[in-house]
Structure formats: C-alpha cells, structure tokens
Design a protein that fits this description.
This protein has about 150 residues and is mostly beta strands. The chain has a single domain, classed as Cathepsin D, subunit A, domain 1, CATH 2.40.70.10. Helices cover about 5% and strands about 50% of the residues. The protein contains 1 helix and 12 strands. Strands 4, 5, 6, 7, 8, 9 and 10 form a 7-stranded mixed beta sheet that branches. It starts with a strand and ends with a strand.
C-alpha cells in the first residue's frame, strides 16, 4: 500500500479586468515521468482532473515518446474545447514518485496542447487511487488503498 503527499503548484494568472491585481491559482499538479512502450520517457506536469473520463496528454508528447500515432487506435472525443477531437490511445507507465507508479491506457490529443499539462482522469487514475484534496494546506494525497 502506497500513500504520497504532493504540494499544489501555483500558476500565475495575469493582470486583467477580472483580476486587476493578478493572482496565483493553486492546482493539484504533480511532476510525472511518462514512459512509452518504445522505452522513451518524458517528464511532464499532470493535473488531477476528476472531471476527465480518462487520462489525456498533448499529442506532442506522443511524438516525444517516439509513438507513431498512425499505428495507434483512435477515437473522436468530446470535452476539451467543447468540440470533437481526434485522440490516439496507447498504454504508458506513469510515475509520480513516492511509490505511486502505474500503467494506464491514455489518450493523446492536439486539444490538450493548450492546457499545458497532462490530465489524470477517472479511467486509469481515479479508479486505482483514493485522492484527498487539501486546498487550504495546498496539498493533495494519493493513496493506493481503495
């Protein structure tokens, strides 16, 4: 049984009419190592997103990992950007450190490029781990004891 605690990461929000002083948005984001079947790995930020049906990553990451998306299964997905997006799927290993490491069938989509992070969603992540969000302490805990 593994349990790990991670700090929220602060993302600056620019000065705007809505935020005249700017602000920092704290989000449950972890640094992960993603390893593909090609043996190539990449470090990436991943946002724990309980509203995402599956784990998703930018299409550029598939290329970094040496995956040939023309040979991967694909589907049209909805949600990111409120439009239909082509998403390619493959199994990768995701290592969050602190003994939280798992294999998941994940999607790669151009629609995720503008988010700036990967998404850890229901299928692949939340189905395996119990997560406690402690925003007031700017911490989140991932526990493998479901």
């Amino acid at each position: 049984m593994a349990s790990a605690t991670y700090p929220y990461i602060g993302f600056p929000i620019a000065v705007s009419q809505v935020y005249p002083q700017g602000m920092v948005a704290y989000r449950p984001v972890a640094r992960a190592t993603i390893t593909a079947s090609t043996g190539k790995s990449a470090r990436w930020l991943v946002l724990l997103d309980s509203g995402a049906d599956a784990c998703l990553f930018p299409l550029s990451m598939a290329k970094m990992l040496g995956l040939d998306v023309t040979k991967l299964p694909r589907a049209l997905t909805l949600g990111v950007g409120s439009q239909s997006n082509v998403t390619w799927y493959d199994t990768v290993t995701i290592d969050l450190g602190q003994e939280i490491k798992f294999s998941a069938y994940v999607g790669f989509s151009e629609a995720v490029e503008r988010i700036g992070t990967g998404l850890l969603g229901q299928s692949g992540f939340f189905e395996r781990y119990r997560v406690e969000f402690l925003l007031s302490q700017k911490l989140f805990t991932v526990d493998s004891s479901l």
